Amino acid sequence: AVCGRQLPHHDANPLAIHARNFNYGTETLIKSKNDIKNLGIKTVFMSNSFAAYRRSVFEALGGFPEHTILAEDMFMAARMIQAGYKIAYCAEASVRHSHNYTPKQEFQRYFDTGVFHACNPWIQRDFGGAGGEGFRFVKSEIQFLLKNAPFWIPRALLTTFAKFLGYKLGKHWQSLPLS
Description:
Residues 42-109 form the Glycosyltransferase 2-like domain. Keywords: Transferase. The protein is of the alpha+beta class. The protein has helices at residues 14-23, 36-39, 55-60, 72-82, 103-119, 121-127, 132-148, 153-171, and strands at 2-7, 29-31, 51-52, 87-96.
């Protein structure tokens, strides 16, 4: 499997610009089981927004899961790495893809991400959690905003809180009341 670089749309807000620049670097990578120790969960980072899978491998590994809330791309990348295949990130291939999410939308997205990880604990068990990556992202985002759009810092802090809360609640979704 391979995914390419995602560049922010021309109308992307500063948070969306930073997110794309942080997650989609300029260096092409080929990742395997040997990278888990250094990259952790980033070993299985994959985005279906701009990806291709070898069909024979995809089908041999059962395809995308039927009942997942999102992150079927990470699920498949993890299965491929576990099975001994390599996955690639090709920085030379790029597409414009970004979202100007509101804090509420980020909460919802990260809630769903938490549900995904709660339902698929093997991914964090085998590849590790985001750990320090979240802190690295926030630090990088603040530095980026200080240079480029300081008035966006309050929004960034609110968004970070929304992501954190959404993820934590999503991880415990089965304990939450239905209404």
